[in-house]
Design goal:
Blueprint (H helix, E strand, L loop, with lengths): L1 H15 L10 E6 L9 H15 L3 E6 L12 H10 L4 E4 L5 H10 L4 E5 L3 H4 L6 E6 L1 H15 L4 E6 L4 H21 L8 E6 L13 H10 L4 E4 L5 H11 L5 E3 L16 E5 L2 H13 L6 E4 L14 E5 L5 H16 L9 E2 L5 E3 L7 H5 L16
Parallel strand pairs: 1-2, 1-3, 3-4, 4-5, 5-11, 6-7, 6-8, 8-9
Antiparallel strand pairs: 10-12, 13-14
Length: about 400
């Protein structure tokens, strides 16, 4: 018996010495969320992405801290959060928001043996990132085009409003994407004049409401509806736009809304909800976690496109668009055609001639935008209403 056990032990040791066959190390993922983990929006989508990794990857465990923002946790810095997560055993740390970019860069330099992923941000693209820090994001621009398209196919007034968060390069390109989708639907599908389309962006000042600091999204949404805008697109992390739409509908107004970030944003909202562009972080986080576990992750910038064969495939597509109860079969049919054209490359909406809001050229006639031209948009586009930069 002793001889048999020794033979088994020797065989196991021999296997462990074969490259690639060593037993996988358990992985602890530290997730830093800007909002509440159950906000029915951006932060919940990331939290559920981490839960997906736990489900799909043996030995993976997520620890997290939510509401990491100046209002909920004043004085708390990203390096302090990272120190705590590392002390609790995090091997890989994911920072979930663009506004964490300076803090996560500092933390990565302080912890060179830990792998850092910043969702959004461009440190790895611009050459500022250390070897243990990379960036990943999903091409939500396409899903926002679908939101704008759906809004313009539905609107009875041609007045589409957007409740936007803070103003930066990310939000400018997302708002511009929604506008391009709306303009295409309005002019090319419905055959109407672009001059009769109003696309108005009202910014609140942050990703969600902070009383006394931001504009109140409930009031902003209400003001847009009361000014004749019959479809609102949300750009914030929380569902106030849908809530206000339901209230206006109950008061007799013919209005619709499109929430943001979270796949289930339309559930239970009735026929005022047209659909939701959403993030599906699970597949991306899982791929990254496997690389970190295997020791093969290299700092890089990833900007992941939808899985065009099925944009709502939970295991493959990093972004999606989930139709809501308010989307008619006719609009759904036109949306499907639109998605097919974008996915095949037949239709590229970021193609000139396109001007910035002040009339300067963004893309010349026939020019197709590069990734960097889209990522670093300096202004909103000509034809859009709203501020292009903070006042």
């Amino acid at each position: 018996m002793l001889k048999f056990r020794m033979l088994i032990a020797s065989a196991i040791m021999a296997l462990l010495l074969i490259p690639g066959l060593a037993m996988a190390k358990d992985l602890t993922i530290g997730l830093i969320l800007v909002g509440p983990y159950n906000d029915k929006g951006y932060s919940q989508a990331q939290y559920e992405g981490g839960k997906y990794v736990e489900k799909m990857m043996p030995g993976a465990k997520m620890i997290y801290l939510d509401k990491v923002n100046p209002a909920d946790r004043p004085g708390l810095t990203i390096p302090q959060v990272v120190d705590d997560l590392v002390e609790k055993g995090a091997d890989m740390i994911i920072a979930g928001s663009d506004d964490m970019k300076d803090g996560i860069l500092e933390a990565a330099m302080m912890h060179p043996d830990t792998t850092f992923i910043h969702i959004s941000g461009d440190a790895a693209w611009s050459g500022k990132a250390p070897e243990n820090l990379g960036n990943t994001f999903s091409r939500m621009e396409y899903s926002k085009m679908m939101a704008g398209f759906t809004a313009a196919m539905t609107s009875q007034t041609g007045k589409i409003g957007v409740v936007g968060p803070l103003i930066n390069e990310e939000t400018r390109r997302l708002m511009a994407s929604a506008y391009l989708g709306a303009k295409y639907a309005w002019t090319q599908v419905r055959g109407k004049d672009a001059k009769d389309l109003s696309f108005n962006v009202k910014w609140i000042g942050f990703w969600f409401n902070i009383p006394g600091v931001t504009a109140d999204p409930t009031q902003v949404a209400g003001s847009l509806y009361d000014s004749g805008y019959d479809v609102l697109i949300s750009g914030i992390d929380t569902p106030e736009v849908v809530t206000v739409a339901k209230q206006r509908k109950e008061a007799g107004k013919n209005v619709w809304a499109l929430p943001y970030d979270y796949e289930k944003g339309c559930e239970g909202q009735g026929n005022i909800c047209l659909g939701v562009p959403y993030f599906n972080w699970g597949p991306t986080m899982l791929d990254l976690a496997k690389e970190v576990q295997a020791g093969t992750y290299k700092s890089r910038f990833d900007w992941k496109a939808p899985y065009w064969a099925d944009i709502n495939n939970h295991d493959k597509s990093p972004v999606g668009f989930m139709p809501g109860e308010g989307m008619t079969p006719e609009v759904k049919a036109e949306l499907d055609k639109f998605v097919a054209k974008i996915g095949s490359g037949e239709l590229e909406l970021f193609t000139g001639p396109l001007n910035y809001q002040d009339g300067t050229v963004f893309l010349k006639a026939g020019e197709k935008a590069t990734d960097k031209q889209i990522w670093y948009m300096h202004q909103l586009l000509e034809g859009m209403e709203g501020l292009s930069s903070p006042q």
